[in-house]
Amino acid sequence: MMLTTRTTSSMNQEVLVLNSDYEPLNVCTAKRAIVLVYMGKAEVLHADPSIRVVSPNRVFEMPSVVKLRTQIKRPLPELKLSRRTIFARDNYTCQYCGVITKELTLDHVIPRHAGGPATWDNLVTCCRRCNTKKGDKLPHQVGMKLARPPRRPKYTPYISLTKYITGRKNSVWMDYLPAFADIVD
Question: Are the CB atoms for 167 and 159 separated by under 8 Å?
Fold first, then answer.
């Protein structure tokens, strides 16, 4: 199957893949989604009519959400603790001053030297200025307060936490991604 579009980059657009029961399952490229539709394994639920993909015997609108025709059984994934998942949980915002910046670090609320573990309940996103100000002290010792207490998200999406939070900002995807109070939108 040969595909042509106005721009090659549109084939790399992200597409939400739903299981046959409409459960969010994955995020893939538009190219992969079109192949799934072409092979009869998925159907398009939402598409961008302004972008057309042309194959020798079919014209597609650029999909943004597809649903698989058969149910895929997957075990519930484990939400791993990492820099990326902490940044996503905290919405890329300093948990002390509220600034949104690319210059973020991780901060141990209870410093490591005081026995603070590297856990969901002790790690927060922090700007460099606040991290320097706090140093190796407890927040209250330097007059700082957390925007909200850190904790492990209760919801574990099949898609990555980063993709889930980004997807919650997509007006089309929002209809398919469940909302959870413990994840910042």
Answer: yes
What CATH number is associated with residue 123? 1.10.30.50
Over the chain (185 residues), the average pLDDT of each successive run of 10 is 53 90 90 93 92 80 94 82 89 94 92 94 96 94 94 74 76 80 51
Report CA-CA distances (Å) from 69 to 72, 98, 159. Answer: 9, 43, 19
125, 92 Cβ separation under 8 angstroms: yes
CA–CA dist 24, 31 (Å, integer):
19
Please give the tally of structural domains in the chain.
2
Identify the domain containing residue 108 by its residue range.
83-142
